[in-house]
Amino acid sequence: LSVAVHPERAAYRAIERSGTFVLNIVPKDAPQLMRAFGRPSDDPFASLACQQVAQGVVLQEALGVLICRVR
Predict the structure, then answer these.
(1) What pTM does this model have?
(2) Distance between CA 24 and CA 51 in Å, rounded?
(3) 56 DSSP assignment
(4) For residue 18, what are the contacts with CB-CB under 8 A and spacing of at least 6?
């Protein structure tokens, strides 16, 4: 599994500060989730049902999550 985040995105700065992030595994039939993350935004989670956890944000619609640490 590989994750790439563009350095100009808000998520990049958050991951750089904390050293952790959440990888949400989303259903393939959830176009609203893809739209929320398909373009630059200061807070793509603003319009989505989600919960803040210490490592990041967990989407309510997620099938599962991976809590990740940058090494």
Answers:
(1) 0.79
(2) 12
(3) E
(4) 55, 56
